[in-house]
Design brief:
alpha+beta; four-stranded antiparallel β-sheet; disordered C terminus
Length: 318
């Protein structure tokens, strides 16, 4: 009964999204790009995509994120131990293959792949240790740190109540080996590893920026498929540019994505109809109006806000 309850709740984290999508913005290719990290068919033409977002970016500090827009942007420019594949299943990201797990399912040992931040600095196990400690550090008052880690990562509850950060059950055995100790077996642990709260932070860079960190696109470094540019911290537009330092850069076919914030669904549809954007989300009356349109696409998208609720509910079911 408990297991089926967990499976049912996890299924709720996948929400059907509908949108209008052009064949492919910015190119002469007749092959559309695949959803997710800009992967798709190769083309000699520059692969530039124009898309819309529903609101401004509230924060780009991964330990402070708590809304869908921030999560979506972070997913393009950062990467954790795991990422979601095209079927919304967790697959290794910074982790080099599957981890070693002890017999009772409470100790995970991850090997990290050879990966770099956008400034050429290697991604190391300490980047994860530092990020997770900052996320649960009560001095930072993060919205999801204790919420996601307490009862999951060993020592998280104690740290959130004032214990030393070293109490947290995450250790860098060496630059490429990360050991994570859980309070108990957690069936959805790999899915949690795709959540921005668990993304790495380069300690040296983070501390060098101080309060300026993540206040604009020039005060961050990135380890995801794209880098963020032309974002001033409050603007209604920004760009993603292909990150040539990304470990899997050869599979990323898009060279740039231009994003504009459009809050009115009708305006978004009009921009699509006039060719000013390559994609427009649909809801309500517009979903019904374009139900049979040849450009209509449907896909299951991960909703992190629901995943958070699942964490609390399933914790009581197992």
């Amino acid at each position: 009964m408990r297991k089926s309850k967990l499976s049912f709740l996890l299924a709720l984290s996948l929400v059907l999204s509908m949108f209008l999508a052009a064949c492919y913005g910015g190119g002469d290719s007749s092959e559309p790009a695949k959803e997710g990290n800009g992967e798709g068919g190769e083309s000699a033409a520059p692969q530039v995509l124009n898309v819309l977002e529903t609101a401004e970016i509230p924060t780009m500090n991964t330990i402070m994120a708590q809304d869908a827009v921030a999560f979506n942007v972070m997913n393009q420019v950062f990467e954790g131990l795991y990422r979601l594949d095209k079927d919304n299943q967790p697959t290794p990201g910074m982790a080099d293959g599957e981890p070693e797990v002890n017999e009772d399912g409470t100790v995970y040992t991850f090997k990290l792949r050879d990966a770099e931040w956008s400034n050429g600095t290697p991604v190391t196990a300490n980047d994860f240790v530092f990020a997770w400690q900052q996320a649960v550090n009560p001095d930072n008052a993060t919205p999801y740190g204790a919420y996601m880690m307490n009862g999951v990562i060993k020592g998280a509850t104690e740290v959130s109540e004032g214990a030393s950060l070293d109490t947290l059950g995450v250790v860098a055995k060496d630059d490429k080996t990360l050991e994570v100790t859980l309070e108990r077996p957690v069936p959805y642990f790999m899915s949690l590893m795709t959540f921005p709260t668990f993304y790495p932070l380069n300690q040296e860079y983070y501390e060098s920026q101080g309060e300026a960190y993540a206040t604009n696109s020039d005060t961050m470094i990135y380890n995801g498929p794209f880098t963020l540019s032309d974002w001033n911290g409050t603007g209604l537009s920004w760009k993603y540019k292909k990150n040539d330092s990304y470990w899997d850069a050869e599979t990323v076919q898009l060279s740039q994505i231009n994003v504009e914030v459009v809050k009115e669904p009708g305006t978004a549809v009009n921009l699509y109809e006039t060719g000013e954007t390559d994609r427009a989300g649909l809801s309500g009356e517009y979903a019904a109006q374009y139900a049979n349109h040849e450009d209509l696409k449907k896909f299951l998208s991960q909703q992190y806000s629901i995943l958070n609720t699942i964490k609390i509910i399933t914790e009581k079911q197992i």
